[in-house]
Amino acid sequence: EWRRTAAHAVGPATPGHPSLDILTICILVMRNGFVIIGKSAPAHRDNFNAELGRKFAREDAIRQLWPLLGYALREKLAGA
Question: Which of 23, 38, 75, 80 is 20 to 30 A from 14 (CA-CA)?
Fold first, then answer.
């Protein structure tokens, strides 16, 4: 199930800030259990678009993953 914004993730029991309504998060869990968190938020709430928020948050998570994959490959190639 997609949680559309950070406000949905923290739920009604946690008092939130209005900015959480426009912050989109994407959590990627790798096969080995490593977790990457991507995020996206417009500069102004009038520009919020849920579909674009999901796209940009996922792209942010993947962008964070690439350096880690590069490091893992270098370790493997070095025989470590």
Answer: 38
| Distance, CA of 63 to CA of 32 (rounded, Å) | 18
Helices (H), 1-80: 6-10, 50-77
Token couple for 10: 């923290």
- Residue reference for tokens 């928020």: 53
Residue 26 corresponds to which tokens in the numbers above? 């994407």
* Residue in the block written with tokens 């500069």: 43
Report residue 35 as tokens: 């977790």
Is the pTM above the cut of 0.90?
A: no
Quote the tokens at residue 64.
Answer: 């964070």
- CA 67 – CA 69 distance, rounded (Å): 5
- pLDDT tens, position by position, 3-41: 566 666 666 655 667 788 888 989 898 999 898 999 999
